Amino acid sequence: MNRILIAALCVSCMLAVPAMGQTVTTELDLFEVQEGKGDDPFLFDSAITVAGDEFAGVLMTEGGHDSIHFNVHAVTSQALFAYMPNGSTTLMAGARHDFRPGRDLSYASFAVTHTFNAILAGEHFLFISQDGDVTGAGEVLASVSVNAALTLEPRVGLGWAAQDIAREDTAGGFSDVQVAVRLRQSVGPVFNVYVGGVHERLLGRSRDIAQTAGDRPDATRFLVGGGFFF
Q1: Share of residues in the chain with pLDDT > 90 (%)
Q2: Does residue 212 sit in helix, strand or coil?
Q3: Cα separation of 83 and 80, whole Å?
Q4: pLDDT band for position 20 (50/70/90)?
Q5: The model's pTM
Q6: Reduced DSSP (H G I as helix, E B as strand, rest coil) percent helix, strand, coil of the chain, to 5
Q7: What are the start-end ranges of the H helices in 17-69?
Q8: Helix (H) or strand (E) holding 10
Q9: Nearest one of 148, 145, 104 to 128, comparing CA atoms
Q10: Are 82 and 92 in contact (CB under 8 A)?
Q11: Is residue 153 within 8 Å of 143, Cβ to Cβ?
C-alpha cells in the first residue's frame, strides 16, 4: 500500500505541473564507491523533475550498500510537489518511503532549498514518520569553478532527530555530520566523473550508542564516481 501511495503521489505531482512550458530534467548527481577503514559503501543519488514556471513534480531516489557490490541494500524514494516563489528558493512537500528491512518506513516529507549566490546553495529536509518520529537533514554545497570543465564541490551535511529512536540506534539531538569534497570533471555536455574524500562522524548520544554496540562512530574514505544531467 505504501508503494502505491508513493506512485500515486508521484503521478499527481507530475500532472499538477502546468502543461504549458514544461521542462523535464534527469540528474544522477552521485554514483560512487568509497574505500577506507570499515565498510566500503556504494551509493547513488538521483532526481527527475518536471517543472513549469512556478510548480514542479520531483521524484528523488537514493540508495546503496555498505560494501562495494553493485547490488542495492536500501533505497529511499521521495515524491514531492514543489513551489518556486522566486528564482532562488524552492519549497517542497510530499511523501517518502524507505525500501529496506525494518518498520516505520513511510514519512511525510517537507523541504526547502535555496541558492545563496553563484557558488553556494543549501537544503533542509524534515521527515515525520508513520509512527510520529521527527527527523531532519540539512546540507550546504559549494560549487567552485576551477576552469571551464573542472569544478570543486565541498559539502557539509548535518542530521538530527527530535527524539530518541531506539530501533534506529539514534538519540535525540544532532546525530551525525558528514564533510565531503569532490573534484568533478565534465566529459562532454552530459556526463561527468569525479574523485574526492568524505568524513562521517556520529554525534552526541548517537555516538555513544554506536561505541557501546562496538560499531565505528566515524570513518574517512576516498571516493570515485560519476554522474550525468540532461
Answers
A1: 73
A2: helix
A3: 10
A4: very low
A5: 0.89
A6: 10, 60, 25
A7: none
A8: helix 2-16
A9: 104
A10: yes
A11: yes
Q: What is the pLDDT of residues 197-212, one digit of tens each?
A: 999 999 999 999 999 9
Distance between terminal CA atoms of the chain?
32
At 157, list the grid cell: 551535511
Whether residue 42 is predicted with pLDDT greater than 70 in this model: the reply is yes
* Residue 132 region by backbone torsions, left for phi larger than 0, else alpha for psi between -120 and 50, else beta: left
Going by the DSSP 8-state scheme, the letter that residue 189 receives in this structure is: T
| Burial (CB count within 10 angstroms: exposed 0-12, middle 13-18, buried 19+), residue 148 | exposed
**Separation CA 227–CA 230 (nearest Å):** 11
In this structure, the dihedral spanned by the alpha carbons of residues 66, 69, 74 and 76, taken in order and rounded to 10 degrees, is 100
Name the burial class of residue 82, with classes exposed (0-12), middle (13-18) and buried (19+) by CB atoms within 10 angstroms of its CB: buried
Does pLDDT of 1 surpass 50? no
Q: What is the mean pLDDT of residues 68-91?
A: 86
Q: Which of 194, 206, 157 is nearest to 177 (CA)?
A: 157
CA dihedral 140, 145, 148, 150 (to 10 degrees): -70
Distance CA 40, CA 42 (A): 7
